[in-house]
Amino acid sequence: MINLMPPALKEQIRYAKLNRLVLRYVKVTVLVVVVLGGIFGWALWQVGINESNADKDLADKQAQISKLTASFVPQAKQASDRLAAIRYVQDTQTHFSKLIDDIAKVVPQGVSIDSMTLNGDDKTPLRINITAQKYADALNFRNAMTTSPRVAAADLESITGNAAGGFQAVVVVGFKAGQAK
Amino acid sequence: MNPKTFFFMLIGVLAVTLAAGGGGYYYALKRLNTQSTELATKLAATKAATDQIDTLNRTKLQYQKTIVPILSAIDEALPHDKKQTEILAQLQSIAGSEGLAISSVSMPSAAGVPSLTSQTIKTGAVLALPINFQLSGSYAQLQNFLMRVESLNRFTNVTNLAISRPDKNKPIVYSISLNAYIKP
Questions:
Q1: Rounded to the nearest 5 degrees, what angle is found at the Cα of A21, between the Cα atoms of A19 and A27?
Q2: A84 touches chain B (CB under 8 A)
Q3: What local confidence, expressed as pLDDT, does residue B39 receive?
Q4: Which of A22, A43, A178, B114 would be a feasible disulfide site paired with B10, CB 3.0-4.6 Å?
């Protein structure tokens, strides 16, 4: 069939056909944009609600922490400080009752202690002045001191006879680490 | 309006819709990402706060169960002030009951105005009230005295013990330096 319509009209008809197609695309595009917009809007709204709930929850919890911290932490800290202080005292405490008992256990018959000074320091030697009835007793005292589990070594410094017929002696004792208190 | 003009108008509308949709998509996705990250941070902070509350509550419970019942004993063992007369009376009482005689007692001079902690010296984490005294008696009495001092309900520490016997016919003389501890 021969189309006798003028070219201008034919062109308008071609555009009219194309318009139907493009209009369909426009509708689909608008629909997709609206649907996506709706989905994103809903998601943002939900996230906003969750964020606001999280803010409120966090504020409540922070208030609870502040209340607990103000009411209980200072007491706990004070108790902790006191316990730490007790530990310090216990760690540095001497037990001279046990120490002199241990020394007394090894003092042989015929020897009496005239003087000694305990200070709990195992780096400082302990100087013991004794009176022995016999010369051998003074030697025995030195030997007996070395048998004490606390004593590392003992030195005799002097033995001097006295007017009463006995002997004055000086024995220097070195303690094992931590055993002088 | 002829079809050709309408066609170009439709193409324009389509282009604008696509551009607006694309831009909106990009913006919304970016905003969603940002808000999600913020939400995750807030949820993590909430979880950390919950854990902190749990820890504080557990510690509080433990404190009430284990520390509160012994607080009075702790305060007695390590008093807040020097309680000078109490400790001196205790020492006198122990010495007396062991048959020892306290011949002299001395404490440091107060550096300033007398207070609940005057005459004390700082020793590590505590304050110590040094008390120097002289006793006379037998070796066995001294042992018992020291044993009882070491098991006092208040923390004390014999820092120096000097034993001397100036006269063989008289009791042994003991010079004792003792620290009575205080935690203000």
A1: 95
A2: yes
A3: 94
A4: A22
